[in-house]
Amino acid sequence: MRRVRRRKSKRACAVKEDPSAVPSDSASASSTVGGVLNAYPTPSAAITSASAVSASADASPAASSSASSQAAEPSASSGAGSGGLSGLMSYVFPRGTGSAHWTTVTEQPETLSFDDALKPLAAGKLPSSGSAPDGSQALIANYPAGTVKLAAPGHGYSFYTEGQHNGVEVTGAKEVVFSYSVYFQEGFQFVKGGKLPGLYGGTSFDAAKSCSGGRQDGRDECFSARLMWRANGAGEIYNYLPTAAYDHGNYCSTPPFSKCDPAFGESIGRGAFTFPTGQWTTVAIRLKMNDANVANGEQELFVNGQSVISLTDLMISVNSETKIYGIMAQTFFGGSDSSWASSIDQSAYFKDWSIAVLA
């Protein structure tokens, strides 16, 4: 059974989703999402999540889901299950630091630089670093006006890394959490949507790489678990799992809105939270691999320390050789055609990269 935990604050407002919106790389997203996600470092930051689904969405998968809704406030001393961590550290490690971890969060013991944490690269190129609008150091993604997809010169970035430092061996892990903070410049124009970093895996590196972009061959030999922003900043999990995952539980009907497209990927929990502009937002993706051919995997998304999407009984892998390979760090507008293109020259900033092995 899938459950999505929704957090409400006094400022929370409803999310209205267009049930006809399609999540694929080549499709349009025209949903309207209201509300703002308060950014760190305020420990009492609250999520503006989907408190209601539009009455017009009665025919959508979300309308038929029985997932429960609960309200909660984040603790100033720690995140849920964060092992007593406080403030930003409870956001990047919402389930604690596990048996091994590393982080680029500044002013922490053994903090790693971006180069040390994210290299050596398995593929791609590390983007340039520089000052974010608040003066902190971050990796910078630029999205020139009129550009779309990674093929566009100077648009976004893409790299793969195992991130194996400080005893973190992701390829031998059963369960990990991967985190980072993202800052969309003030007034960022989200257009139809774009991709954000996540995790990836497979039966080998060659099989695991590029589990995206409408890939059809070898879909049972790989997976990816990224995030997306959609129109007006609506956030979601964006997965490529084996299509066998579609047959288990309510994965493809996770509210507020979800759709599984075997030709492209899975848009899961769209509108469960909203990315703001001009603020930092910390996201943490927890992934627990399933046993071979058993639908007992788990995936959970935390935003500023709060669980906003929680999935159980997942079929992440159908092959006993599949393992987590590390970070699939990609960001770009798209979609595949010019209707997804960045409408102006704009930027996003990424920092606080972190990984913990939980099992």
From TrEMBL:
Protein name: Polysaccharide lyase 14 domain-containing protein
Region (Disordered): 1-35
Gene3D superfamilies per record: 2.60.120.200
Biased composition (Basic residues): 1-13
InterPro entries the record matches: Polysacc_lyase_14
Domain Polysaccharide lyase: 134-352
Signal peptide positions (record): none
Compositional bias annotation for Low complexity: 20-31
Highest taxon, organism lineage: Eukaryota
Database matches in PANTHER family: DISAGGREGATASE RELATED REPEAT PROTEIN, PTHR40124
